[in-house]
Amino acid sequence: MALINKIREKSGVAVTVIAISLILFMVGGDLLGPNSLLGGNNNQTVGEIAGKEINIKDFQSRVDGFRQNYEAQSGRSLNEGELASLRDQAWNQFVVDIAYKKQYDKLGLEVTDEELYDMVQGNHISPSILQAFSDPTTGRFDKNAVINYLKNLKTLPLEQQKSWENFEKSLREERTRAKYENMLRLSTYTPKAQAEKEYVAQNTKANLRYLYVPYFSVVDTTIKVTDAQLEEYLSAHKKEYKGTDTRSIEYVTFPVQPAKDDSAALYTEIKELARGLATAQSDSAFAAMNSDIPLPINQSYATMSDQLKEAVKTFVPGGVYGPYREGNTYYIYKYGGTRSDTVSSAKASHILIRAENQSDSAKAAARTKAEGILAQIKAGANFEALAATSSADPGSAQRGGDLGYFQNNGAMVKPFEEAVFSATAPGLIPRLVESQFGFHIIKVTAPKSNTLYRIATIGKTIAPSQATRDEAYRKADEFANTVKSREQFEEAVKKNKGLVLANANRIPESATNINAIQNAREIVRWAFKDDTKTSNVSPVFETEEQYVVAVLTGKSDAKDVKVDDFRDELTTKVRNQIKAEQISAKLKGATGSLDDIAKKYGAGALVEYANEISLATGFLTSAGFDPIALGKAFGLKAGQKSGVFTGENGVFIMEVINKTEAPKIADFTQYKTQLTQSLESRMSYLVNEAIRENAKIEDHRAKFF
């Protein structure tokens, strides 16, 4: 009895402790998180737009509404990437509600109830309504379906009623924004003088001869650039270098790599699976049941890994092959022969030359540049090298233009696809191919094939054991605890030959990845914390299959631009200025023909021709597009030679051999239309940028997410 009484006496305390624990569990994030009240941060403002603060609760409420709608429509929960996208949508909605609405209100722009009715079920149906209420089979819009839906709206669940309310709200916003942008678009005006200037720039032709000394002809290491020179240049060009809030770090990674024991155990397992695959009545079912990585039973070259492309050439029907290792995965294959597919695969490389805008002059300039590169390749120049330096497609440029294998199923734009799949042999396509992206120079590296390979595949990935993970963490933790500054950090890396020091410069506060490190938000948030000082060493962070320890090496402030924020860019600019002065001094006073001057100058001086070029589409052989040089040339008369001057890419002396002036015309409508349409095509972007700049937006979301 004494024991029972004792329990009863203490039961009230136990219940209280449990209750407090539950409360802390439920609201712990709000009370104890990095932006919490108890965590020392009273600021719950996620940002400011046009002077109005956005509270984190209001922002999160809007995100939750977007999430509920998304999950109701998709029937699944969001992943982290999709949630980040919804946060962007919610933020942009606040920008519209506050910054855009200020502009609408000033002009008295609105969408009335009558206008909304007309958009939903009247004579001018909104495209969004047309899409939502069209028959998916015939594509035909049924206005009665809209009317019946609205009649029954109040009988639907509250969630659906709320969803329709939000939909109508979005229709009003879309129409109001369209009115605003159309008003500005229709107010664009191109004066006759500007149209005439464009006509002359496009149609005045000249044949030029010029001496060109590129900056790169002077070795960088011979030019010393001081901090004082960088400061002076930055001070004179402040408008060109806008500040941003960024952080720079150095870091080391401790990969969680499978140990020998982990690999040996999996190798034994996959050998057993190979025997099972060989005798299985249904090899496809056996492979699907035992593989960590699902792969189609029928594969073309477009879907195969590089290793399998080579291996399949030696396969015999009915044979089991492997294991082949790719990264941390072992593969075994059972080969079932080939058949013809309804689609074909091919492999190609390309060099893309884009037009700066959609004007005729920009397209002509891009075409001229592309034709010049194509001519170089036909003359024997290296395709891969030119792709790396000239292509506007960064993804393929770093691979020498290689696009890999692809199929003729719309994976590529139509003109490009037709050109590649019309080729019957590997090699350069001897003409330019134009698409909406620009001009393509294409080399077919493997012509079309419609062979389909039947391959049952089992892929087993080596997973590190818990002991392996613990050991990697131990090493990372030991490293983090033994270094307290950047100097100690770098010294420790030098002593440990198993570590590689990596850099990540100018990381924005909203970054989710750091170089190749995915899901690196915690590292970014640590770097931006107010109490993280330069030279501070981070705790151990876990990201996917590795642990990371970082040291903060630098900060940049949007309101206080420093040389270190743009050191590399400023150094290049100042170095080129010094080079220009040295080259100009060496050329100054030189007389005679351009060939004579080049000979006196020595190595690095080039004498070249540019024939039938215009100011709008001029492209110099080695210097590329240099507007300063072109402007100087077209300011000369036929037979005139300029003095020494500095262009964008080097130092020049221009000589006009002859010039054909643009014929006189009375009607410049065509050129006026070109310029107007070019401006109108960018109107939406320009309006958005102007409104955002005027609203002085402060975005602090990265402190919360």
From TrEMBL:
Topological relation to the membrane, as annotated: Single-pass type II membrane protein
Positions of transmembrane segments: 12-33
Keyword terms: Cell inner membrane, Cell membrane, Chaperone, Isomerase, Membrane, Rotamase, Transmembrane, Transmembrane helix
Location of the PpiC domain: 343-446
Main location: membrane
Family of this protein: Belongs to the PpiD chaperone family.
Protein's name according to its UniProt entry: Periplasmic chaperone PpiD
